Amino acid sequence: MRIVLFIYLLYKAVQIYSGLLIIYALLSWFPGAYESTFGRLIARICEPYLSLFDRLNLRIGMIGFNVMIAIIVLNLAAGGLGKILQSLLY
Questions:
Q1: From CA 35, how far away is CA 9, in angstroms rounded?
Q2: Pairwise CA distance, residues 63 & 43, whole Å
Q3: Cα–Cα distances in Å, from 52 out to 20, 46, 68?
Q4: 18: Cβ–Cβ under 8 A, 6 or more apart, which residues?
């Protein structure tokens, strides 16, 4: 029963962090948004994870796909871990 609760909390944490990553991406549309208190807080939370994808050069013109790829990888990793934990349970 504890594993089920852990899987649920894992998926909720991934949803929340994915939302924060989307907010981080949307802040780039507003000039000076990263310099606000809210922007610095979101940047401090999101940039360590996003820095893993900076080396991949995921830009096409002026559009960067780092955040989208980061969200996909995060959800795939959470789904894989969830499946592993479910297989241990049953």
A1: 32
A2: 19
A3: 16, 11, 13
A4: 71, 74, 75
Distance of CA 50 to the CA centre of its chain: 8
Partners of residue 63 on adjacent β-strands: 60
Q: Are 24 and 46 in contact (CB under 8 A)?
A: yes
Report yes or no: 24 and 51 within 8 Å, Cβ to Cβ. Answer: no
Give residue-wise pLDDT tens across range 49-69: 999 998 888 888 888 899 999
Predicted TM-score (pTM) of the model is 0.89
Helix, strand and coil in the chain, % to nearest 5 = 80, 5, 15
pLDDT > 90? residue 11: yes
List the structure tokens of 78: 């959470």
